Amino acid sequence: MSEQWSLTVDCASPRELAAFWCLALGYVPAAPPAGFASWEAWQAHFEIPEDEWDDGAFIEDPDGVRPGVSFLRVPEPKVVKNRMHFDVHVGGGRQEPFEVRWPRVRAAVDKLVTAGGTVLRVDEPDGTPDHVTMADPEGNEFDVL
What we know:
The chain is an alpha/beta fold. The protein folds into two domains: about 5-75, Signal recognition particle alu RNA binding heterodimer, srp9/1 (2-Layer Sandwich); about 85-145, no CATH class. The protein is built from three helices and eight strands, in the order βαβαβββαβββ. The longest helix is centred in the last third of the chain and has 17 residues, at about 100-115. The relative contact order is 0.19. The mean pLDDT is about 95.
């Protein structure tokens, strides 16, 4: 039996990064735990100091199928390349003709640049664009394919 899991991203600005990734992944801010009207009510119930309430943000798949993602504030900045990264699959896969797939990738890239992402490079292993490597607003690398 597999284990339930989620991904946690260390960052400087949890709410801002969570908003970017909601757009990138089609996710939504996570609902508060059952029995609580808000995350603030949950935090107050567990006596979490108010100055820590903005230390995290959580997003989830609106369909409840894919893993959740947490964003946690850390004091140190990102300094090296990610060893693990998101691949955002918007093109439909290589089984889709390039003329169908690549406009989808470009549209997603344009949307994410407008939201604060940065294009790092267009990967063209055989001379034809395959995917775009980007960075989120805090410099975390990911691919759009």
